[in-house]
Every structure is written in structure tokens, then in C-alpha cells.
Specification:
By secondary structure, this protein is of the alpha/beta class. The protein folds into two domains: 363 residues, Alpha-Beta Barrel (TIM Barrel), CATH 3.20.20.80; 53 residues, no CATH class. The chain is 28% helix and 22% strand. The strands form four sheets. Strands 1-2-4-5-6-7-8-15 form an eight-stranded parallel beta barrel, surrounded by seven helices. Strands 9, 10, 11, 12, 13 and 14 form a six-stranded antiparallel sheet that branches. Strands 16-17-18 form a three-stranded antiparallel sheet, covered by helices on one side. α5 packs parallel to α6 and α9 runs parallel beside α10. InterPro entries: Chitin-bd_dom (IPR002557), Chitin-bd_dom_sf (IPR036508), Chitinase_II/V-like_cat (IPR011583), Chitinase_insertion_sf (IPR029070), GH (IPR017853), Glyco_hydro18_cat (IPR001223), Glycosyl_Hydrlase_18 (IPR050314).
Length: 475
């Protein structure tokens, strides 16, 4: 009898003390995120952008935005609910597709609502209702934009992130569904982030980096510059206080402790446009007089042009494309209207995708799809930039590009003292000494320069290289 009671007691305790475990969200790597904004959507009979123009096969997740916060819950209109339902139906084409709902924590209206969530009771109610709303609309997670976050809201948002993540885990264990994902959007200036990097790492499944707007007519109207350069540009543009680069931004976030696989690069599907002072001077850093007068067909915003407007005008409206092999970014100029525009195209997005693979980063997210060539009017595949990245990320892709960066005095004066990569999977690197002295150094047999560890590594051990070595010995 004693034994029987003993075993019954043990069995009962074992049943009571084994908690249900949360299941992590099913996120495909590398990410190919696609933003769809409610304000850009039009009726089915329109030739403007609509949800039916989205090709779900080219995305691993779709972000629908933006929801506001009203009281202690997300504010969704009837149209938002219908659009989220249509987004969910995209899983019929791509069953692995995730659908996320976005909230901008830096928006003026949202900041006012966040102030009301400073109380723990209100915040707890918001977290509970957010989970209910996401599940009710068949969404897979929440995206919180924090790049414009004020100091006043930072503490509330930090608490929200912690409590949302905890609730997502708790709800997953109870419902036996995959945990809702938490995605955080951050700015391109890591050192001025309002949020603790350790908090970001501990709560976010994906950290989307705002890797554009490095140089704009609004920030510096008198000098042209690249919107989203992979590397810091050379020449006059490099002296601008507004000039940064994706390479530097990602390095800064890594230094702060963010894991590489959580970092996602945002590709802007629009360009920044200036009006040149002289048509004879059109390099990056050329003198300008503010925003260009050229306007888009659908997107009428001063100083900005959608990619579909740029690619349509290249062959027909005197726009001449130039590729900056230092910044790894294109620009175009028109000597008649004196328009100068920095943008991303098929070549630059493929280079960025390859760079992400080389660095073992998380992937890309496109901002935003109504600005893409969604009808294929530029002679490419519809959504040609998305397809270009998808092709690079494909398991069997061997998409190589010729990196024309040269290890010379100009290269070293721009970067300072140190060792620097000359491109993806190269068997040499550039050693820059004081005074701009440049030395090309060869790696050992079978090795390539790893731009993250700054040493030569075996090509076979670097996933992005796939055993491929690009020689720079001709330099």
C-alpha cells in the first residue's frame, strides 16, 4: 500500500511539474520581407498598386502597416481587417509565408497612446488584447518601428517589448501554436539608439535596420549623395556629416552585441533626388540647390522618386545611369532638367544580397512594394528587384559580381588605417597605412578574406562563398 501510494504520488507530481513549452515561430532564412502599406492600396480595377500585385513566392514574410494604438488595443479599420484576410490568403501560394502587422512607435499619435500605457495595468491589457487581435486576424507576429522613438516613450516601449515577448511565449505554450514573432525596426545610427541592445537581442526575432536615407535633400540640400550606399563613398560626398554606409551601420550594431542572423537590411524602393547647380558636375557630392523638380507618376513627393518612375525614365527622359563602384550604388543624372537621383537597381540589390550571404546576416526587407516595378513596365520581371534578391538567395545560386574597388591611395585615404575587404570571397585584402599608403596582401592557398573577423579564412567554411574564390591578384 505504501508503494502504491508512493508511485501514485510520483506520477501525480510528474504530471503537475512538466510545463508546456512554447514553439518558436517558423521563420525562413535568409529573410525576404515585403512591406505593404494600407495608404498605397487601390481598387482591383485600378492600374495602381493593389494586393493582387504582390507575388507571395518572392517574400518569406509580408508586413502590413500601419496600425495605430487606441486606448489599450490596436486600432484596425474594416479595410485593414479585409486586407489582412487577403494577405493571409497569400499562404495558398506560399504556405511558409508569415504575415506581420506593423505599429510605428515613433508616430505622434502612437506616442500619445504610449504615454497612457506607462501604467502596468493598462500595459498588461494592451499586451493581452494584442495577442487576441493578432490571432483573430491570422497574423504571425508584430512589427514595432522604433527608429523615430523619442526619449519620453523609450522606457514604455522597453517594458512593452519585454511583456509582449513574455506573453507571446506564454500564449504559445497554452495554445500549442507557434509563438507569435516580434520584429523590431531600428535606425541606421546604432550609437544613438533609445533602446538597450541587450533588450533588442533578448526580445526580437528579427531586427530590421533602416539602411537608407543616409543622405537626403532634406538633410543636406546643397550636396548630392547616396541614399543607401553599401560602402562609404569616396570623393567630395565622403566629407559630408550625413554620409554613412550600410557596412558601417551593421558593424556598429554588431559591436553593440546584436547577432548577425537577427540583422535584416532594408532596401528602399525609391530614390533621393536633387537639382544640380551645373549639368557639368554630376558626381556624388556635386553642388545642388535642394529637391529636384521631377515628380513621380503615382508617388508625388518632393525630392523622392519611386523605382518604377526612375527605371521607366532612364531610356526615355535623358536620365543617364552611372554606377559608383566605391559605394556599390547607382545614380542617374539629367543634364536638361539638372535632376540627380540616388537609388537602388537590380545590380545594387544583388550585390547587397551577396554581401549579406557573405556576412551570414539575416536577410532583407523591401520598403515598400508600391514603389517597385510591380507591373514589369521596365522590361524586367514584375517585382524585378525582389526577384533579383530571391535568385541570389536561392540555394543553388552562384551569383557573382565584379567588385571594382581598388587598393590604392584613394581607397585608403577614405577609410583610414586598417585592413579592408576588396569584395566578397576575395583571396586578397587591402592594408592601409598612415598617409594613405596602400598594400595589397594575398591570403594563403584556399583562403579568402573574412570582412567580419578581418583575417583570412578557408573559403569552404564560409557559407556565402560556397567554395568560390574571386581573385584580386590582378590589382
Amino acid at each position: 500500500m505504501i508503494k502504491t501510494g508512493f508511485f501514485v504520488m510520483l506520477f501525480s507530481l510528474s504530471c503537475l511539474t512538466v510545463p508546456a513549452a512554447a514553439t518558436d515561430p517558423k521563420l525562413l532564412l535568409p529573410h525576404r520581407g515585403c512591406y505593404v502599406l494600407s495608404a498605397t492600396l487601390h481598387d482591383l480595377d485600378s492600374d495602381l498598386f493593389k494586393l493582387s500585385d504582390v507575388n507571395p513566392a518572392l517574400c518569406t514574410y509580408v508586413v502590413y502597416g500601419f496600425s495605430a494604438i487606441q486606448g489599450t488595443q490596436l486600432s484596425l479599420t474594416k479595410s485593414d481587417e479585409e486586407n489582412l484576410m487577403i494577405c493571409g490568403m497569400m499562404r495558398q501560394v506560399n504556405p511558409a509565408l508569415n504575415i506581420f502587422l506593423a505599429v510605428d512607435a515613433g508616430d505622434a499619435g502612437t506616442e500619445k497612446a504610449l504615454a497612457e500605457l506607462s501604467e502596468a495595468k493598462a500595459r498588461g491589457e494592451f499586451v493581452r488584447l494584442t495577442v487576441q487581435q493578432l490571432r483573430a486576424h491570422n497574423a504571425d507576429g508584430l512589427v514595432l518601428h522604433t527608429e523615430s522613438l523619442s526619449y519620453a516613450s523609450a522606457n514604455v516601449v522597453a517594458l512593452l517589448l519585454q511583456e509582449l515577448r513574455e506573453k507571446f511565449v506564454e500564449e504559445s505554450a497554452a495554445s500549442k501554436q507557434s509563438r507569435l514573432a516580434l520584429v523590431i525596426n531600428v535606425g541606421n545610427a546604432a550609437k544613438t539608439s533609445r533602446l538597450d541592445p541587450q533588450l533588442l537581442t533578448g526580445t526580437a526575432d528579427i531586427i530590421q535596420v533602416r539602411s537608407f536615407d543616409y543622405h537626403t535633400p532634406a538633410s543636406e540640400p546643397t550636396v548630392t549623395g547616396h541614399n543607401s550606399p553599401l560602402y562609404r563613398p569616396s570623393g567630395p560626398a565622403s566629407n559630408s556629416p550625413f554620409t554613412g554606409s550600410i557596412e558601417n551601420t551593421f558593424h556598429d550594431w554588431e559591436i553593440l552585441g546584436i547577432p548577425r542572423q537577427k540583422l535584416v537590411l532594408t532596401i528602399p524602393l525609391y530614390g533621393q533626388a536633387w537639382r544640380l547647380i551645373s549639368p557639368l558636375r554630376y558626381d556624388p557630392g556635386a553642388p545642388a540647390v535642394g529637391e529636384a523638380s521631377m515628380r513621380g507618376r503615382y508617388w508625388d513627393v518632393a525630392g523622392k522618386l519611386a523605382f518604377h518612375d526612375i527605371c521607366e525614365r532612364l531610356p526615355s527622359e535623358n536620365l543617364t545611369r552611372v554606377f559608383d563602384s566605391d559605394a556599390m550604388a547607382p545614380y542617374a543624372h539629367d543634364n536638361i532638367s539638372r535632376t540627380w537621383v540616388s537609388y537602388d537597381d537590380l545590380e545594387s540589390v544583388r550585390i547587397k544580397a551577396r554581401w549579406l550571404l557573405e556576412g551570414n546576416y539575416g536577410g532583407v526587407v523591401f520598403w515598400e512594394l508600391s514603389l517597385e516595378d510591380f507591373n514589369g513596365t521596365c522590361g524586367m520581371h514584375p517585382m524585378g528587384l525582389l526577384k533579383g534578391v530571391a535568385d541570389v538567395f536561392a540555394a543553388n545560386a552562384k551569383v557573382l559580381f565584379e567588385d571594382k574597388r581598388m587598393c590604392d591611395q584613394s581607397f585608403c585615404l577614405k577609410r583610414g588605417v586598417g585592413v579592408f575587404a576588396l569584395g566578397a570571397c576575395n583571396d586578397s585584402y587591402c592594408n592601409c597605412d598612415h598617409g594613405g599608403k596602400a598594400f595589397t596582401v594575398a591570403c594563403g592557398p584556399g583562403t579568402v578574406f573574412d570582412s567580419l573577423t578581418l583575417v583570412c579564412n578557408y573559403a569552404a567554411s564560409m557559407k556565402a562563398c560556397d567554395g568560390t574564390i574571386n581573385s584580386k591578384k590582378k590589382i
